[in-house]
Amino acid sequence: MLTWAQVCARRLARHHLTASAADAAEAARAVGGIHAQIMSAAEVSAGLRVAGMTRAGVRDALWTERTLVKTRGPRYTVHLLAATELPMWTGALSALPTRRLELLTDEQAELVVAALADVLADDEWTTAELTDQVVARTGRWAGDPVMDAFQGKWPRWVEAMPLASRRGVMCFGANRGRNVTYTHPERWLPGLTPMDPDAALAEVVRRYLYAYGPATPAHFARWLAVPPGWASQLFASLGFLEQVVVDGDPAFVEAGDTDMPDEPPSGVRLLPYFDAYGVGCFPRERVFPGRAFQRALAGGQAGNYPLLLVDGVVAGVWHQRRSGKRIAVTVEPFERLGAARTRELEAEVARVGDILEATATLTIGEVTAGPHA
Length: 373
What we know:
Blueprint: H1 4-14, H2 24-31, E1 34-35, H3 39-48, H4 55-64, E2 68-72, E3 78-82, H5 86-94, H6 106-119, E4 125-126, H7 127-138, E5 145-149, E6 152-155, H8 161-167, E7 171-176, E8 179-183, H9 197-212, H10 217-224, H11 228-237, E9 241-246, E10 249-254, E11 268-271, H12 276-280, H13 284-287, H14 292-295, E12 307-310, E13 313-323, E14 326-333, H15 339-355, E15 359-364
Parallel strand pairs: 14-15
Antiparallel strand pairs: 1-3, 2-3, 4-8, 5-6, 7-8, 9-10, 11-12, 12-13, 13-14
Helix pairs in contact: 3-4, 5-8, 5-9, 6-7, 6-8, 10-11
């Protein structure tokens, strides 16, 4: 029988939180993508996993070296994925259960995807620019402002964006000022061809269990945002799973992958918003023990608070406020930190500052900012 401490130590190592990844792409590959809805948080997530990495290095990997690509990943949220894994992700995402489109017929959706594949092949375009291009290739109906937006209405064609991303014909380009742009992922991986869906889904399960296991189909379902029953059927169809027991609870790993670190989990770490470790590791009540379950989650959802991690479990929250080249970091531990832990925390704050190319200072006290603030 495995212990929870062994599982924590294994996950810390495989998330490259105790042993550095070679580069940002390896870090993204190891955790199944780095959440990038907030790019500064993504830069910290990647930087924490690669020795000496700064936000400039992450940006170089994304926009210059193109070893990372910014696109939709797990939970169909914005992630930085390793460019070499685009065939796996497009194959797997295309096979996930999805709701039917409400504003487009199947035929119209296919026309929009084909238009986007054509338009995005060689350049980067804003949504407004894409509207003109898509309408010219499909018809005036594509530009009808009928899709609910934050402040107004988006054109009808926008409903096909998720389908285009899953098909591997659309990803994010570099921001143009404050405007988001989109382009074709073949600019990162020429000749991109989605992997066979069944093979891709099996590989995603392997990757999840390697980084987050031992885990159950229900854990996988929450990580990928799919129905639990569908995830259970997927697990049942795979022939490479082995059941193990963690402190009395059954879970799965890939067959034969039962090695555990000899040393217990240790160390103090600061994880940013939506870091993969806090979002993808389960059971929640073990990862967020005691007070952490109420204070560091938002309605049971992980990611809305940056986390203080001590020995592999959540032990506090933190917040940063940037002013020029200075960052004021406030950390709220849920229990008193001793002198040794405090020194580790000070080093971690300095590391966050280095990643963000700023000087960071630490205050230990109450974090008054709300979730996702």
